[in-house]
Prior knowledge:
263 residues, alpha+beta, Glutaredoxin, two-stranded antiparallel sheet
Amino acid sequence: MTAHLTGTREDWLRARLDLLAVEKALTRQSDAVARQRQALPWVKVDKDYRFVTEAGQVGLADLFAGRSQLLIYHFMFGPDFSAGCPSCSLIADGFNGIHVHLANHDVTLTAVSLAPLDKLVAFKRRMGWSFPWASSATGDFNFDFSASYSEEQERQGAVEYNFQREPQVDWSSNDIVSGLAVQSGTTPSGYMRERPGMSAFIREDGAIYHTYSSYGRGVDAIWSIYPWLDRAPKGRNEPSGPWWRLRDAYLAPSAATAQSCCA
């Protein structure tokens, strides 16, 4: 017998209508937040950021690919990683299919990471992704946009992420970070020198402007698995932290069944 509240269909409908009113209010608030986001002042980008792509070395303007708007996902993949961050990979699984649609709405979506291009291309092929992915290994882009930090910044406690200074942390004692670092093939501190986020840019009259960036929990909004889980009976169901793996690292159903039966 379930311990969860049960009731009649009429009980359910009354509760559902109460929830619907709250959901509609949240939708209206979300619309208002989107308008406020779009009203932020634009900051002109004067620095000549350079990237390495499969088409060769390019500038920030080239990442727009002829469109006026550019969305960049700051994908955690450092130079010493052997695989992309599992969390970023799960997010990328969600947006991989939409970049074509965005491209036909004057928006280019691309990922940018600090790792060298050959690692990015190999991992992209392994994951079966088709979105564009650029390496910022030859420039300051990742550091200027709070997506990467140096060992010196880490030692000096000079990491500013999500618009605030972070206290110094011994990441090796954090089980969640350590687990994600192992999956990425790096150390906990190496893992945390890369950070997730997204940034938006617009090109107008030949000039490029930075319009928006979001980090930390702000990335939840583009993490497509969570709106689905938030509607599942058990919700996110993450009492022990991250449960996900790279898409090719899960046990096949038959193998998982055999392991659970015979362990």
